[in-house]
Design brief:
Elements: H1 6-18, E1 22-28, E2 33-43, E3 46-56, H2 57-82, E4 87-92, E5 97-100, H3 102-108, H4 112-115, H5 120-125, H6 134-140, E6 144-150, E7 155-165, E8 171-180, H7 182-205
Antiparallel strand pairs: 1-2, 2-3, 4-5, 4-8, 6-7, 7-8
Length: 206
């Protein structure tokens, strides 16, 4: 192998001898530039050979740029979620919490690390929520809104759940955002009381 592939022969020999993969090595030839990945092949716990994979540098650089753009986009999405004034929770298609921002954790009276990976049904059983829009979204496959009572914080939340579909048309994620309606409800109650008092005075004056 070293005679045919002098530049990668050393990598193959090292991989066969130690079992350590040789990944991401740049090989420059006269007419091309390659990225070499050498991985061992095991049989019954013994190394019986190795597999060499060569990728054009241009393709590798293109993949790296795409990965970099995805990483950047992911960071931007995380910044938007965690700096939003609204509570945001992202569930997977299996109904488990993938992401929750600090506002949502505050409204729900929980710690972020405690609910990551928790199923929506568990959140109901633990008394965090009295109901969830997640099963409604999974069933309707469209945006659903509902009022949810949070016992821990004594808050009333207007919750909106929206499905995210994959290429096959299946729900891959559910994005839930909510607003605190507690203060609005209090204002409405005060307004209703003021109207009742006004009606009473009107009757007395009549």
């Amino acid at each position: 192998v070293s005679e045919v592939l002098p530049r990668s022969g050393k990598l193959i020999k090292s991989c066969n001898a130690t079992g350590e993969p040789q990944l991401g090595f740049h090989i420059h030839g006269k007419n091309n530039r390659l990225v070499a990945n050498i991985t061992p092949i095991y049989r019954d716990g013994r190394i019986v050979g190795s597999m060499s994979n060569f990728q054009p540098m241009e393709q590798f650089e293109s993949s790296a740029l795409k990965l970099e753009s995805y990483v950047k986009l992911n960071k931007e999405l995380e910044a938007i979620i965690h700096n939003s004034p609204d509570g945001i929770v992202v569930y997977g298609g299996d109904g488990k919490v993938q992401t929750i921002n600090e506002v949502a954790a505050f409204y729900d009276g929980v710690k972020i690390e405690d609910v990551i990976g928790m199923h929506y049904s568990q959140m109901i059983k633990k008394g965090i929520l009295d109901r969830s829009v997640v099963p409604l979204v999974l069933k309707a496959k469209k945006k659903v809104s509902a009022l949810v009572e949070v016992q821990r914080t004594n808050k009333t939340l207007l919750v909106n759940g929206a499905p995210v579909f994959d290429d096959r048309g299946s729900i891959s994620q559910i994005v839930v955002n909510f607003h605190d309606m507690t203060q609005l409800n209090n204002i409405q109650q005060q307004l209703e009381q003021s109207r009742m008092v006004a009606d009473k005075y009107e009757e007395e004056l009549a």
